[in-house]
Each structure stands twice: as C-alpha cells, then as structure tokens.
Amino acid sequence: MTATAVVPEAEAVTLRRAGGADAEAVAEVYLRSFDAALPTVVRPHTDDEVRAYIRDVVVPRRETWVAEARGTVVGMMVLDGETVSQLYLDPDWRGRGIGDRLLALAKERSPRGLGLWTFQVNQPAHRFYERHGFRAVEHTDGSGNEEREPDVRYEWRP
Prior knowledge:
Layout: E1 13-17, H1 23-37, H2 47-61, E2 63-69, E3 72-80, E4 83-89, H3 98-109, E5 114-119, H4 123-131, E6 135-139, E7 151-156
Antiparallel strand pairs: 1-2, 2-3, 3-4, 5-7, 6-7
Helix pairs in contact: 1-2
C-alpha cells in the first residue's frame, strides 16, 4: 500500500509567462474577474474590444504571467516595469493562495518596489494589497481613468 500525498491547490498551480496561445484565456479570466469583483464599475470597452486588446497588445507586448491549473488559466498578472498593471483571478479560484504567489513573483521581479492602482470600491483588493505590505499613497476622483471611477494608488517598498 502506498500513501498518496495531498497537494494543496496553490502548489498544483503553475506560474509561467503567457504566450500568444494564452490570450483568449487571459481575456476570459479578466472579464469574469472584473464582472464578479466590480459589478458597479462600468467597463468602457466591450468584451470583444477587451479580447482584442489583450490578444494584440497585452500578451505580446507586456510582461504577462498566467497561473495555470490542470491545463486551464485561472489567473493573470501584467507587469509594466515597477507597476502591477493587472492582477485578476478566476472567481472560482480566489482564496487559494494564487494571488499571493503572483504578487510574490511581482516582488521578485521588482525588488526595489512596486506600485498599482485599484478602484476605491474594491475593498477586498485593498485588504489583499495591504496584507502584502502595500500602502495607499494617493486617492483620486476617477477623472484620470477610463471608467471615471474613484481609485487609489498603492505602493510597496521593501
């Protein structure tokens, strides 16, 4: 008789750079996550415009990472220098340590510090980033973003 080790779900998730073949799955994670986490925020672009932007700009031109479980993309993160420009998880995969791992990867890639923006209404994101040492450094009325939604800029410094 052999014992079967139980692997925590977060450990069964692989983080890797996204390739062109991942663009559709990255877009779907973004769309599902945005809609679930931010139901009151009006997206300024259609689903098809978001898909095209991720396919034509984000994946080929940005440092895009995916979290993959069982051959399925369940999370995505985009880094732009020292900025986390996007970090979204499939709603069914939240709370399993995947966001923690993606953020740890971002810190490894930018060890001198990181910044990011999130909407003020996204309180779960605030708690997540603050738990990881980020501090709110600026609040806006949303006039500077496409959604026209009040936001907050966070920074992390080691």
